[in-house]
Amino acid sequence: MMKINQHYAWGWQWFAFSGAALVVLLAGCVGVPTAGEKTARQNLQTIEKAYRASDKRPTLPTLTTNSPLSDLLLFAVLNQPQVEAAYYDWGASVQRITVERSLPDPKLTFETDIADMVMTPMQGLMMNFPGPGKRKAAANVATAESEAKYFAFESSVLQTAFAFKKAYYELHFLDATIGVNRETLRLAGELEKLAMIQNEVGKVTLQDVLRAQIEQERLTTDIANLDDSRTPLLAQFKAELALKAEDASPPVPWKLETTPLDVTKEMMFATALARNPRLKAMEAEVRMADASIRLASKAKVPDFSAGIMADMKAYPVMLRPSLGVTLPIWRYKIAARIAGAQTLKRATEARLSGEQIILAVELAEKSFLLREASRNLKLLNERLLTMARQSLEVAQSGYVGGKLDFLNVIDAEQTLLDFQLAEVEARLQRELALAELSLLILGMPPERAPLLAPTAALRKASNP
Fold it and tell me: Taking the model in full, what pTM does it have?
């Protein structure tokens, strides 16, 4: 009896030790990463170093009135919560690849026969093994999803950069508009003095003086309204830097920097196809749908299970191995799963094709706006502004000489003002068109943005 009890105790110890050893062994097993998982993790580590090293927020550039536009853009990107959320969404999708390609957790099992008492307690360990190729197919789906998430992150960076540039340019060109109106107000004051001189010598009536004063009052009100409109623009400028209401208002740089465009007109569409993050995300969704089809096809492959159980009351200890296999006999379910995945792929391909069409239209529209603004600027700077200034000088001389009335002078002054404001508006539209083209359509990131370098194919497209 003593021997049986000792054997029973030894059996329990053996089973406990074997089970614990197997669990520890499996717990220490990290599996074999797929090629896509390795690439995804390398990419995540690259971005992490620049954006969230040790999961800490990076040091932001110090902003002053002399800060270059690149510092402002970097500040906005690094500080923007939407960019941070997109980054962590991407990071989570990369971790999911490991989950999908890993084995299921092992199971400790227990069963017994019971009559009036416990008869044969059986302890065991069970492992499930997905059919060949299933884990790799699932990992490929997760990899493609992580690629789409990365391009969503890239889109958020570019959207943030564009939103900041828009606020930056609108604020600068508002100041330019105020400057034009103040210069015109100064000019209207000179016209008033001229009218008063003419009135004193009896050449004109007091009506001309009143007209000059009316023009000054109108301009003064316009300037006050423009000055007041600077408040919401400053709030937008601050918001695009992701600064909170309680934060100090950022200094506005005094120097205006324009947006370069280093891609030729002939290469614009090819560059947009190669780099536009919306397209790249949709291409990743197509790859994900294609991987989903292969994963759905694996439903035909059975899964396996293996385990071992030990009867501790038997002498000697009895081991009971077990094997199991699923029977994928519901063909209609498998066919429906495959058909659903194929339908999803056709839908993503159609969306990609539609996005390519939309991209071509957007490129044509923004290119037209850029060309239109450039033509208007050339016309205004090379001809109309010069002619308007000459027209005002002629009107002033004619007025002094009694050949023209004051309405001609006011009309010439208003024409010059309109052309000067049109020149400011054309410069604003040109900069906004350039910013949208380079960032949102061509997908060209700002300097030092925490993004992956373009692939060889992208470099080839952007540098023919």
Answer: 0.87
